Amino acid sequence: MIAKFLALVFFATQAAAPPAPQDAPAADALSPLPADQQGAIRCSAAFALIAERQRQGDEAALVYPPVGERGREFFVRTGARLMDETGMTRDAVEARLRAQAGVILAEGSLDEIMPACLMLLDASGL
Fold first, then answer.
1. pLDDT single digits (tens) 19-31
2. Nearest to residue 31, comparing CAs of 95, 110, 79?
3. Is 31 in contact with 117 (CB distance < 8 Å)?
4. Which candidate among 1, 41, 52, 107 keeps its CA 20 to 30 Å from the CA of 72?
5. If you count DSSP H runs as helices and E runs as strands, how many of each does the chain have, helices first?
6. 1 touches 76 (CB < 8 A)
7. How confident is residue 12, by pLDDT bands cut at 50, 70 and 90?
């Protein structure tokens, strides 16, 4: 499960160019989620994006604390929690994570959301 989620989100980061907003699956086109679940998905996607960039040695991503292990665990727990709480399938969770990664890339908001996501990661106890 971990490898599949990470591969899907990391695949989204490897596109030649970030998708235009109209090309990215709109996060709000999917059924709405409570704010805490939506925030967890957004941060899960952000951690995956940063972790991959850190793995590649991207200097801009290296300014953040390493998020590979902790971010991956947050990512996995978020997926499991969504499946438990909403009845979503793995495919549905993957679609949301892909959509969120696409939105983050399209809007260029990764650096803007990372401080709040890092606080959420710390608050999770991971």
1. 434 444 444 346 7
2. 95
3. no
4. 107
5. 5, 0
6. yes
7. very low
User: Under a CB-based contact definition with an 8 Å cutoff, are residues 30 and 105 in contact?
Assistant: no
Terminus-to-terminus CA distance in the chain, angstroms?
19
Q: Output the CA angle 67-71-74, nearest 5 degrees.
A: 160
Distance CA 126, CA 121 (A): 7
Give, in order, the Cα–Cα distances in Å from 26 to each of 40, 84, 92, 100: 17, 23, 14, 8
With a CB cutoff of 8 Å and minimum separation 6, the contacts of 47 are 67, 70, 71, 72, 74, 75, 117, 121
Q: Cα–Cα distance between 112 and 95 in angstroms, integer?
A: 23
